[in-house]
Amino acid sequence: MTPNELLANAAIVLKEPKFAENVGSAARVALNMGISTLIVVGEREYERDKMLRTATHKAADLIDNLERYPTLPEALAPFGRVIATSARRGRQRGTCPPPRAAMREAAPYLLENRVALLFGPEDRGLNNEDLYPCHQLTTIPTADFSSLNLAQAVAVLAYELHTAVYEHAAGERAEFHPNLATVQEMGAMYAHIEQMLQKIGFLRDEDSAYWMKNIRSFLGRVGLRAKEARVIRGFCRQFLWYDGNR
């Protein structure tokens, strides 16, 4: 598969961008780097003319085929790998490799999986809940001033992914990761795990979110395939059925 065919499995996902011009700039960057899918999450409407002003006429098709979803889980549902961006750090956010390292890790997933690069709103970024379905978080290194324009952040990650894909595809024996469970499939699995753990008393209302975050983090790193996620769901369903029919 050629680098351009691999990049066809990548998408830029913008959560609730404030300005139409930033959507247009993101479209222009995506097209330059071989990424043909742009997704916008949220209910805000954007004027086409304002988006085209920064997208230019060459990216008009990307603007006209813009994918819209009301919520982030719906937007990320079909993706097997999600890399989120954030300037904020903290214990809950774990280790954040720079974009070059993150994109080199992401490139081998593109043969068998759709990969999303996720960006938050310009004024506040992604919150901790937004990161639940994400497999990795990356931070763009800067000097003392750590605030980049949304389109600039998109440009950095899109360029690094483009470069990583070409480097990986040029390898003599390029290896690729298998088809993984999608965000939607993993979400359904986590829901069944949570039900089961609540049933046996492991999870209580006051600490349920904490433990489920750790479970998501652990299983997200494992890289489960769709069949493996279904096996875990089947085990949980059988347990719940047995408990309800004793």
TrEMBL record:
GO terms for biological process: tRNA nucleoside ribose methylation. Residues 11-159 form the tRNA/rRNA methyltransferase SpoU type domain. GO terms for molecular function: RNA binding; RNA methyltransferase activity. Signal peptide: none annotated. Belongs to the class IV-like SAM-binding methyltransferase superfamily. RNA methyltransferase TrmH family. It comes from Desulfurivibrio alkaliphilus. InterPro entries: Alpha/beta_knot_MTases, RNA_MeTrfase_TrmJ/LasT, SpoU_MeTrfase, tRNA_m1G_MTases_N. Keywords: Methyltransferase, S-adenosyl-L-methionine, Transferase. GO terms for cellular component: cytosol. The keyword tRNA processing does not apply. This is tRNA methyltransferase.
